[in-house]
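Assemble and predict.
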Amino acid sequence: MTTDYKNIIKEGLWGNNTVLSQQLALCPTLAVTTTATNGLGMGLATTLVLVATGWIISMVRGVVTQEVRIPVFILLIATTVTVADMIINAFLHDLYKVLGLFIPLIVTNCVILGRAEAYASRQKVLPSMLDGLMMGLGFTAVLVVLGMIREIIGSGTLFANASLLLGQTFAFLELTVIPNYKGYLIMILPPGGFLVFGFLMAAKRLIDQELERRNSLVIPLKVIDVPA
Amino acid sequence: MEDYFILLVTTVLINNVLLSKFLGLCPFMGVSNKLDTALSMGLATTFVLTLAACSSWLLEHYLLIPLHLDFLRILSFILVIAATVQFTEMVIHKTAPLLYQVLGIYLPLITTNCAVLGVALLTVQEHLNFVQSLVYGFGSSMGFTLVMVIFAGIRERLALAEVPATFAGAPIAFITAGLLSMAFMGFNGLSFK
């Protein structure tokens, strides 16, 4: 039995994207994306937990019986999140202060339990970890894009405080896109999150339609080529 | 007494869990298609949230702090919440079988509603006393129910409206939520001085 790694990557990043397609994990998505840096930090923390839970749950899948699996999964996830919470608090304390409540809330992030239930509890260790990684990266990508849009329109900067939160090596990311910008506060405030996210979902739908149109154009051409 | 009233109004309107704290968005988007389901979901969440806020306060102050086990907070809170949800499920099953059928899958899903865990953790973070936690939990969940019902009402109308195909369904719902959130920001001007 071979595992289709390419498909896992494609589904995780785009086709089955946790936020845009499945509409899961909306709370952290909208709450922390006031800047791109926060989005990146939250996305990476979630990715870490997703990979770890994918690994652990896939390992215990033979031991845990069908009836008790949900409580066991939740406990495993809560333990992993507690560890992640402590690691971030110890090594990335500034990031911890910004994300605050939303790190412990990774426990109730539906994506984690969803992937554990739908994927990791049925597959081998390596595909489960890859699935976790790709789902996490897809999630991170949306968070960063959402954060970038809100930050540029809202305050005219990009990746502000990146060096403060992620270490000096990331200082090159900090940009001021629009100098002397007065700021458009609504984008930073909660309503902006909802508005930008609505437009982002519509954009994904447009791109999907365009891709489908292109694919449907390709097939007839092949048929014409064959006879000769 | 006055303090508790202010806390209640603040949690229901000004610091609304859904629109300003972004907690519990999954059921907010998932179950708000019909008015009556939204209402019963809101009421079930109210019950669970209030109970969970109280029991996690007791857990925090009588078990975790005396034994210096506060690193187990996330783990123990989620257990308490899961137990509370199970308890609510049994109560509703016995007392209102019809409501039990209506809520169906959404009842166990309250466990993964981040508003419940979020409020439980917030009561600890803000060092509230027991009665304050009770009011905080109840107010937050009333705010949740209120917004759920308003939003479900709007979505029922929205289903009949002519929306550009790209925006139909979820995207326009988010934009509507954005407008609703903007409207709720108006409550920031409420002053109790």
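Chain B touches chain A through 42 residues (CB under 8 Å).
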